[in-house]
Amino acid sequence: MLDKIKSLSHKRLFEIGLTIIFLAPIIGMFLPFNSWKHAIIQGLMYGIALLIVIIASDKKHKNSKR
Questions:
Q1: Count of domains in the chain?
Q2: Taking 80 as the threshold, does the pLDDT of residue 49 lie above it?
Q3: Where does residue 41 fall: left (phi above 0), alpha (psi -120 to 50 degrees), or beta otherwise?
Q4: What is the mean pLDDT of residues 17-43?
Q5: What letter does residue 1 receive in the DSSP assignment?
Q6: 35, 46, 47, 61: most buried by Cβ count inside 10 Å?
Q7: What's the predicted TM-score (pTM) here?
Q8: Is residue 25 one of the residues assigned to a domain?
Q9: Burial 30-52 (b: 16+ CB within 10 A, else e)
Q10: Could you tell me the residue range of the domain that residue 12 belongs to?
Q11: What was the pLDDT predicted at 15?
Q12: Span 12-27, mean pLDDT?
């Protein structure tokens, strides 16, 4: 699974990460959870999005050093 994510271009990964970051609060508003479940789900979404953006940044910097 991680290989499939890393095979995408850095621009596409960055777009996916930012989309998750921007949509996480909107998705959270429509899910009927109590505050703890809401916080955990939001944290997981932000964590995954952050990892995707970091992978995109790493790919871009590896390509620019060549």
A1: 1
A2: yes
A3: alpha
A4: 83
A5: -
A6: 46
A7: 0.77
A8: yes
A9: eeeeeeeeeeeebeebeeebeeb
A10: 2-61
A11: 92
A12: 89
Can you tell me the mean pLDDT for 36-51?
88
Q: How long is the chain? A: 66
CB 38 within 8 A of CB 21: no
Question: Does any domain span residue 41?
Answer: yes
Provide mean pLDDT across the span 4-19: 87
DSSP 41-58: HHHHHHHHHHHHHHHHHH
In a domain, 66, yes or no: no
**Range 30-48 average pLDDT:** 83
Phi-psi region of 8 (alpha: psi -120 to 50; beta: other; left: phi over 0): beta
| Residues 29, 20, 5: CA angle, nearest 5 degrees | 150
8 in any annotated domain: yes
Task: For residue 6, report the phi and psi dihedrals to the nearest 5 degrees.
Answer: -70, -20
